[in-house]
Amino acid sequence: MRVSIKDIAKAAGVSHPTVSRALSDSPLISAATKARIQRLAQEMGYSPNALARGLVTRQTYSVGVVVTTIADPFVAEIVQGIETTAHDHGYTVILCNSGAEPQREIAAVEMLRSKRVDGVIVTSSRVGALYLEHLERIGAPVVLINNHNEQSGRYTFSVEVDNQHGGWLATGHLIQLGHQRISYVTGPANSSSDLDRQAGYRHALIEAGIEPDAALIIPGNGRPDGGERALEILLSLANPPTAVFCYNDMTAIGLIAAARRRGISIPKDLSVVGFDDIVFASYFEPPLTTVAQPKAEMGRLAMHMLLSLITAREDNGEEISNRVVQGELIVRASTRKLCKRVERRDK
Amino acid sequence: MRVSIKDIAKAAGVSHPTVSRALSDSPLISAATKARIQRLAQEMGYSPNALARGLVTRQTYSVGVVVTTIADPFVAEIVQGIETTAHDHGYTVILCNSGAEPQREIAAVEMLRSKRVDGVIVTSSRVGALYLEHLERIGAPVVLINNHNEQSGRYTFSVEVDNQHGGWLATGHLIQLGHQRISYVTGPANSSSDLDRQAGYRHALIEAGIEPDAALIIPGNGRPDGGERALEILLSLANPPTAVFCYNDMTAIGLIAAARRRGISIPKDLSVVGFDDIVFASYFEPPLTTVAQPKAEMGRLAMHMLLSLITAREDNGEEISNRVVQGELIVRASTRKLCKRVERRDK
DNA sequence: TCATCTCTTGCACACGTGTGCGTATCCATT
DNA sequence: AATGGATACGCACACGTGTGCAAGAGATGA
Questions:
Q1: Would you say domain B5-48 falls under CATH 1.10.10.10?
Q2: Which residues in chain B (5-64) have CB-CB distances under 8 A to chain A?
Q3: B319: pLDDT confidence band, cut at 50, 70 and 90?
Q4: Whether residue B219 has pLDDT greater than 80
């Protein structure tokens, strides 16, 4: 049978409030009985009931983390950062895979609400207006990762990478290597991160005096198969590019695999840049040039922000604002200088 | 303010037990009031308090999942399987990274005990006797993944891949390709999975009439850097092997990267087999031949087993036993037939 | 008409913990 | 010796929910 503070109270010949106070190290209890009760609790194998405690204190010390799928290594690294920070502050993580199905997302949110989590971190790729409304109903602060939300509510904030700057870095790197015709392979449709990376790409081109060519924007989907298809489209172009910037590393990997099958050498015939710097980026052949997102760091930041929001509800809130972190260009071997090939300038 | 069943009771002009029964669809309540109360609950935005419910029913519908690190894509895929199955049965997953630090593991277990989880799944690489004892103290059933535990307790069982058979498959494949000198690069020290894979390796060699050579067993650590170092050792051998079976894919990747730097061609000069079939195995160059573990499936199985154990506590338990699943050899391009090279037979 | 039975609802308690407030004890001060 | 204050502890209630049991209201049969 499970031992409660009442059992300890009976064993020690005191009342249960005394035990409660002794275990929480209250100054109201004499040092002698405090020590006696603590030893007793230890001996009897007492474990405080977090449910009962949460019921009365209205604090559960647990946070919900909603992801599309934890099997995505990019997501997993973020969650790693979240969990570690949460643990260090005595918080517990409840994991929810939404699988990008709205119905499942709703169910997850309802569950978190029911469990009375102290806060929520969401790293689904897109967050519809309807979903955000549900999120607000939890009645707990919410932090979004890589989800730009225009009107951050009273208690919802976000941590995100500077996608535009990242796109600018990647494209600028290719330009500096001498490339003029540079493709962009898009990510999932309508994602704000895709649009921002693309904006950075355009910005870098214009800055260098290169006219952006709509034909060089090739649709992808953020997954390897999207990259594979993109390469085929790219090759069918009348005037194919000498370099390509991909929405993310997964896309780049697919594209490179397809290129290898077609006998196209990377980076000799085509330079490729990715985005994210997933775990294996340096182990691919060729090692992938990419824009690194500080994934674990972003998880840490999000959790810290959430902790601030949680405690800010009691204290009058210190000012918290959305946080934007910078990606970092990591040059490996999938890009190289454009040289000694006849450069075909259109128009 | 949060709405409780008492608030609904007041609004409906009934007592709170009536509301409780109406919402749980009890046959004791008339259809009319049941409908009225359910509609009222909907309107008032009622969300049941899982804490209070768990306190009285002694069921929390949440399970703890302890992993070394969720950032390991292999682990993440297992957790994906666990979470999906848990969700489908109305259960919630509490995630704990142990980071392989014993102190952290203990803390995690204590936290899970405090939260009164209904069960626990552990997929840390090694589980010491002391740790298992702590685990038992949770007072909830435990399922271990890829952790062979000799004496499974009253409520602890396991799901694991057949490591010995997997090692036999990998080595057999190399033998069939004509290789005679085959190395094995070990995993983390003293892990039972490593010993079992090595046993399968020896078994396949002996079966084929090849004398196992202790010099060909090279220490690794389960990570890429271990594989890189292994390659150097391997090259320094007087009579180097023509093929190598690595403890896992991470090791193989490191080994292949090191080989590339040394100008050694895979699979022309050296055939390489991995283990696990991590997500990117097919995207590496060359695509990796490996023994696939059904990761998501193992997660599913473990969760199903846990559900059985949980419900079996009330019903008299149906018989549950440890489960062993078979890996599958996946032949890609990192291995190939040994041919037309002078074969050096020792002794 | 009265007893019995079914249907519906309320009362009271329990789960385990935290906390405001009252009170008993003891020591020091006047 | 009486008063004051500090110290240490118990009483009672609250958090939100589930459930055994009693009780009231009708309906039905004798």
A1: no
A2: 45, 47-52, 54-55, 60, 62
A3: low
A4: yes
pLDDT at B150: 61
Domain topology for A60-162+295-326? Rossmann fold (3.40.50)
Sign of the C-alpha dihedral computed for residues B278, A254, B330 and B248 taken in this order: negative
Q: Which nucleotides of D are covered by protein (CB under 7 A)?
A: 7-12, 14-20
Q: Where do runs of H (alpha helix) occur along chain B?
A: 5-12, 16-23, 31-43, 50-57, 73-88, 102-114, 129-137, 163-176, 192-207, 224-235, 249-261, 295-312
**Given this model, what pLDDT does residue B339 score?**
72
Domain residue spans of chain B: 5-48, 60-162+295-325, 163-293
Phi/psi at A295 (nearest 5 deg)?
A: -65, -55
B314 touches strand D (CB under 7 A): no
pLDDT of A339 > 90? The answer is: no
Query: What is residue B322's predicted lDDT score, i.e. its pLDDT?
Result: 85
Q: Which CATH homologous superfamily contains domain B163-293?
A: Response regulator (3.40.50.2300)
Q: What is the pLDDT of residues A252-300, one digit of tens each?
A: 999 999 999 999 999 999 999 999 999 889 999 899 999 999 999 999 9
pLDDT tens per residue, range B23-66: 999 999 999 999 999 999 999 999 999 999 999 999 999 999 99
Q: Which residues of A touch B260 (CB under 8 A)?
A: 285
Query: Under an 8 A CB cutoff, do A96 and B77 touch?
Result: no
Which nucleotides in chain C lie closer than 7 A to a protein CB?
7-12, 14-20
Phi first, then psi: give them for residue A182, nearest 5 degrees: -125, 125
Q: Span A225-243, mean pLDDT? A: 95
What CATH number is given for B60-162+295-325 in this structure?
Answer: 3.40.50.2300
Tell whether A135 lies on the interface with B, counting CB pairs under 8 A: no
Q: B34 CB contacts (<8 Å, ≥6 apart)?
A: B22, B25
A190 neighbors A247 (Cβ within 8 angstroms):
no
Q: Assign residue B222 a region (left: φ > 0; alpha: ψ between -120 and 50; beta: otherwise).
A: left
CB contacts under 8 A, A 256-285 vs B, are: 257, 260, 279-280, 283-285
pTM assigned to the model = 0.92
| Equal CATH topology for B5-48 and B163-293 | no
Q: Name the closest residue (CA) to the C1' of nucleotide D15.
A: A56
| B57 C-beta less than 7 Å away from strand D | yes
Q: How many other C-beta atoms can be found within 10 angstroms of the C-beta atom of residue A237? A: 14
Model pLDDT for residues A109-162, shown as the tens digit of each residue = 999 999 999 999 998 666 655 677 777 888 899 999 988 666 555 677 889 999
